[in-house]
Amino acid sequence: MSIEKNTNEIDAVVKKVNRQMSVLSWVMVFMVIGVLVIIFGQPLISSNGSLQETMTVAADEDDDFYEIVDGKEVSSGLIVGENWELVKTHCTSCHSAQLITQNKATKEGWDHTIKWMQESQNLWDLGDDHEGVVEYLATYYGPGDSGRRSQLVVNEWYEIE
To answer: In 3D, which of 92, 90, 57 has the Cα closest to residue 77?
Structure first.
């Protein structure tokens, strides 16, 4: 009789543990769903009321994250494209990304600027990253239509009396 009693007690404990595990499993499922909704499912509303596409990108193995809104990394304002992490790493360790985003240059112009910074501002040798940095800068911050507005053309003048 004691073996049967022990078996019944063991069965009761196993059922109790199974119920608790089932509850914990559902709690974990809802937590994972909640985190996924927070990370991927909520667009941000800009100050003018328009929706902004938001994405979070893992920066490296250390679980740092970059927030990307409308194709730009939020903290720096740099356009996200090939080699943008190199530019953020090398360039923004010494100066604001605004020095990049407010300027335009050709590939040769950016190369000249980097060499000038190395000669006069103690910028380190970029090594294998040099070409990627110049390529990124020329691609996303090269001369083009995205700079200042075009010159106004006035076809007809009038006199102020």
So the answer is: 92
CA distances from 71 to 29, 53, 120, 129 (A): 31, 8, 33, 22
- Helix ranges restricted to H, 68-157: 84-91, 98-101, 107-120, 129-140
Please give the angle made by the CA atoms of 88, 111 and 131, to the nearest 5 degrees.
Answer: 60
Per-residue pLDDT tens, the chain, 161 aa: give them: 567 767 778 878 778 777 777 777 777 777 777 666 666 654 444 444 444 444 445 444 444 577 888 899 888 899 999 999 999 999 998 899 999 998 899 999 999 999 999 999 999 999 999 999 999 999 999 987 555 666 677 888 888 88
d(CA 69, CA 44): 9
Q: Which residues are paired to 73 by β-bridges?
A: 68
Whole-model pTM: value is 0.53
CA dihedral 57, 63, 64, 68 (to 10 degrees): 10
